[in-house]
TrEMBL record:
InterPro entries, per the entry: Papain-like_cys_pep_sf, Peptidase_C19, Peptidase_C19_UCH, Ubiquitin-like_dom, USP, USP47_C, USP_CS
Start-end of Basic and acidic residues biased regions: 877-887
Coiled-coil residues: 514-541
Superkingdom as given in the UniProt entry: Eukaryota
GO cellular component entries: cytosol; nucleus
Protein name: Ubiquitin carboxyl-terminal hydrolase 47
Compositional bias of kind Polar residues: 846-858, 865-875
CDD domains reported in the protein's UniProt record: peptidase_C19C, Ubl_ubiquitin_like
Amino acid sequence: MVPSEENQLVPKEVESAAEEPRVLCIIQDTTNSKTVNERVTLNVPASTPLKKLFEDVASKVGYVNGTFDLVWGNGDSVTDMTPIDQNSDKTILDAGFEPGKKNFLHLTDKDGEQPHIMQEESGTTEDSAQDRFIGPLPREGSVGCTNDYVSQSYSYSSVLSKSETGYVGLVNQAMTCYLNSLLQTLFMTPEFRNALYKWEFEESEEDPVTSIPYQLQRLFVLLQTSKKRAIETTDVTRSFGWDSSEAWQQHDVQELCRVMFDALEQKWKQTEQADLINQLYQGKLKDYVRCLECGYEGWRIDTYLDIPLVIRPYGSNQAFASVEEALHAFIQPEILDGPNQYFCERCKKKCDARKGLRFLHFPYLLTLQLKRFDFDYTTMHRIKLNDRMTFPEELDMSIFIDVEDERILPHLLSSFLQNSLLYELFSVMVHSGSAAGGHYYACIKSFSDDQWYSFNDQHVSKVTQEDIKKTYGGSSGSRGYYSSAFASSTNAYMLIYRLKDPARNAKFLESHEFPDHIKQLVQKERELEEQEKRQREIERNTCKIKLFCMHPTKQIMMENKLEVHKDRTLKEAVGIAYKLMDLEDAVPLDCCRLVKYDEFHDYLERSYEGEEDTPMGLLLGGVKSTYMFDLLLETRRPDQVFQCYKPGEVMVKVHVVDLKTESVAPPISVRAYLNQTVLEFKQLISKATHLPAETMRVVLERCYNDLRLLNVSSKTLKAEGFFRSNKVFIESSESSDRHMAYTDSHLWKLLDRHANTIRLYVSLPEQSPGSQFRRSVYQKPSGDTSNLDEACERVKGPAGNMKSVEAILEESTEKLKSLSLQQQQQEGDNGDSSKSTEASDFENIESPSNEIDSSASAENRELENQIQISDPENLQSEERSDSDVNNDRSTSSVDSDILSSSHSSDTLCNVDSAPIPLANGLDSHSITSSRRSKANQGKKETWDTAEEDSGTDSEYDESGKSRGETQYMYFKSEPYTADEGSVEGQKWLMVHVDKRITLSAFKQQLEPFVGVPSSHFKVFRVYASNQEFESVRLNETLSSFSDDNKITIRLGRALKKGEYRVKVYQLLVNEPEPCKFLLDAVFAKGMTVRQSKEELLPQLREQCGLDLTIDRFRLRKKTWKNPGTVFLDYHIYEEDINISSNWEVFLEILDGIEKMKSMSQLAVLSRRWRPSEMKLDSFQEVVLESSSVDELKDKLSELSGIPLENIEFAKGRGTFPCDISILEIHQDLDWNPKVSTLNVWPLYICDDGAVIFYRDKTEELMELTDEQRNELMKKESSRLQKTGHRVTYSPRKEKALKIYLDGAPNKDLTQD
């Protein structure tokens, strides 16, 4: 509801001369989940007594008066829970109702009891008490039928009661209105329904679920005997082999009719009904050709199930006025003359002839399809013809029989002579909408009472003959060219007539005439319906509410839905919840209870002491669709006693902080009142925690990172911002810290760290044996760099004198360990926390050499060699070196932790000094400001820049100082054993880190564990779907990460500022798959295309086996699969070529020297079409100096040898390689466009890579036999489907309508 909707004015209605104001009442039934979204409207005089209002409401909603309450509501919310006095004689005006405005009321339970349903009245003797359904009666005006297509909405309760017409509707599954229309028509056909009833299903021979006749039989029985308003068709569609997706496919009703009849014929083979479809619906006609010279006639007999009638003749703007006119046109012969002459077998030459159709036999049930769907070749779209076409109620088909035809069937001639080919209309299937989609419904005449009914899905209503005439279509004015465009879109699509023959016209079988198997089926369906009613009654009286429980041993919060009858007691409900949560082996039943709980605020609202025998309906406030609260199954130990939770209390989770151990204890729950003072609250906590209240400091966490010290003892908890559920931290020590300013205190810094620390799981890359050496070399003791130099010199020495990697590793590690131990001893003397020296296996695990990370490509292998042989100065300049910034100490804090082989490293990200205790290490304002604002200060932000788009921010500022140095951030790591699903041998770290740390600083902290500098590994964030995305914005914090997120580390050079990761694909123009992925590369801003090609050469050689020279290939733009602009060697990225993150380019290998030298040139891909051979040649590139069509023709003539005047060309359509069927290319393309330049309509060739087909206009098209054409069609269809190209034009992909006789579709991937 929009704000102040209740104050909006509504139209006032006056009552005759008195002009008494009326009151609009909108009542929402909140007693049942099925009716909660329904609203009942009453417009009553202002003088109406309240007592009469209740009577009117009861009558309207179908409840017994006096079994429900009405309360004031404000739109969707209840404003006053006080019920309106239903026995009062006061008028509604005196009771506060306002005329001219919307008065919202909520219908609620009375005394916790559901309203009683008013028993349905019935006028038949068969409708006994047990046959009456349970549920609200249909609302007045809630059901209707319109002739124009309207998306009908209905409530579940309206489906429960039968229409006043006595007929039952069908529920639309989603877009199955076409199916519902046909099923209702077949049901209302006496001959078809009776024949279906006579067929008996043998369960031993077939599965009832997949038997189409049996499911149709069940549906017809329900349509005839059910008391529901509408029934489902899902069982029928399931027997077709359809899944739920088919319900969202709209199909043609005439197509469905044919497919269903075929399926029934297959199912009815070797039964009495085997020929039923043909007996009822099949007619015969003769297709003939008569020579006008000798009179010889060739002919064949065809059968038909329906007659398709053209609405508007081809090429004409005038539609046929009536069905009779269209039928005459259907049998009107045409003259074959000129180039269309007929080869006469008798004359042995081509002669003028007459070709046409003659009806030989009309079926008992005549189906006429009005062909309203056509194809507009101007717009290349399907269209619907809405022209007016009348149809008679009685149709005389005798005028369409050629009695002189000797092949006319004898019985049809006899019927004709007796003038009995008179048909009566009984079904009109109507389509409303356009060719793109719409709605079907059926208007059907009952042969029982000759009354017309509209069957519009679940709605059935009476209609008149005038309503039928409205389906003629068109407009009332004269018919002209534009009449269809402005006509109504609701018109008849299929007409079904029945022959008027008293001897054959059948009546519907009555219930006493049913065969025995149908009587048994009726009884079975009735029992199922009764069972459904009882289940609905149980559902209406079942309370469904969310249930939570903290498992006493697993300590995880479990969630479920508690379903309990409203008459069950609280004690019984506890037993049900106990079993539901599976606590039998965890805690005794008598140690459990249910309490009122608010899961959103994690708040225990109240407990139910002494109400064990109270019904749940009363405790929960009745049966409702949704509850504003939840239930918690609370548990206790046998030696504990449950606490009493009173309404109005607030819950506080108290965490005790220990400054000495820098720990925060798990919460203790305490309940308090909002009017308590802070002093009283401290005393309350003191009792719960046994800590002194005098020295207690209480910090309230009101929201994220809002830590407020409660230091005014006289203030109430409400004034301090306490709410339903609260979280506080307390510290009660005698330390001097409590005398410091709060934001400078150790307590604040500890809580600040606690609030911002997240836990991440980091998957480390598998290491080759050489990586252990790299890791040791990278542990740089800056006080004495000789170890590093010595190690590097060993590598640079002659191969014969080279020590083994293991020896180097052992020697250098021992030296580093001794240095580390000396530093730890010094730190211990200075009072700093000592590090554990226990041995760890975590850093000494080696992976087999062949288990290299998938991303460790040639560039990574090159990186390994580079690190092993480069000198320390280069290594320091490439990346921040610990020895460069920490030359005042012997070992960095992180290296110290690693080399001491402890299982965890707990240190601050302070690179300027050794580890410092937390109290002195954290800055007093450690909530860091955004690094990006500083990095981009004075710089225009654009998504095209490397800093913004690729996120490759520099890790250092202009002075070379690491940006991670500006703040001290918390980082703690330890080995972690991952779940069972992880890869065997995969190494994991569990990291606790301050999420205000930048990605750059985070990577620096991970360097010792990965074993390479941070510029040589990449960080990938793993999402819930196991998708991985690289994190590249080095100056952004980890604030977007949350607890338990997973991170994968992969070896490979990380991007620097101005660099972009580029995917390189090979362009293979003459291969079936022209786009082949090669490798990932890195291009930099300011780099020329030639420089990028030089960098690609070794990677192509090592990774792809392509041994190329720099002039043997080119790079070009890639848009999806289309090749574009050719990049010239002197082009510069970002200046001449726009580049972005995850950019894609084509690499094209050249056959000769590069012809593209200038941007003024244009490179197109040409392909010759040879119509005499029905084949396409391979692609050949043509380089043009201009956009001239004459130059293109010159080049094509020179290339192919075709004379210039005979060259015809056409532009290819769609995605490269612009595949098209060779059966269509000759006529479907726009050959030889009348333009002089290529960059104008309809060509628009302005960039490299366009596809041009060309041909010799003097070359004749090969004549194909039917066999050759069919064979070629199969090959082309298979070829084009494999390449993903459609064979023919289609504006949207339509799923073929199929009925599967085995109940399930075959998984044929070659067919739609």
